[in-house]
Amino acid sequence: MSHATNKEPKAERLEVRLTPAAKSLLTTAAQARHTTVTDFLVSSAVKAAEEALTSTKVFYATEEGWDELMNYLDDSENT
Q1: Is the pTM of the predicted complex or chain greater than 0.70?
Q2: What is the residue range of 59's domain?
Q3: Is position 73 within any domain?
Q4: Is 60 part of a structural domain of the chain?
Q5: pLDDT tens track for 1-22
Q6: Whether 56 contacts 45, CB under 8 Å
Q7: Is 38 inside a domain boundary?
Q8: Domain total in the chain
Q9: Which of 14, 24, 37, 60 could form a disulfide with 30 if both were Cys (CB 3.0 to 4.6 A apart)?
Q10: DSSP letter string over the chain?
Q11: pLDDT digits (tens, 9 = 90+) for 42-61
Q12: Residue 61 neighbours by CB under 8 Å, 6+ apart
């Protein structure tokens, strides 16, 4: 589900304001990954956005709830 690839032309610009401490942290993290701060920020933000969007499609159910859902789906196939 990757919406941003390295093959796409970069036409959009995004500006952010941050504290010196945050900038230092991001710079250090980017250096640790052998990448630029921009690439580090974009890849991290895209990953977080994808996780945020896919997590809304995940639900949890008790064993009883799961059995109830399966019974409902079985019944709907038979109608």
Answers
A1: no
A2: 20-77
A3: yes
A4: yes
A5: 455 556 788 889 999 999 999 9
A6: no
A7: yes
A8: 1
A9: 37
A10: -----TTS-----------HHHHHHHHHHHHHTTS-HHHHHHHHHHHHHHHHHHHTT-----HHHHHHHHHHHHHHHT-
A11: 999 999 999 888 877 677 88
A12: 69
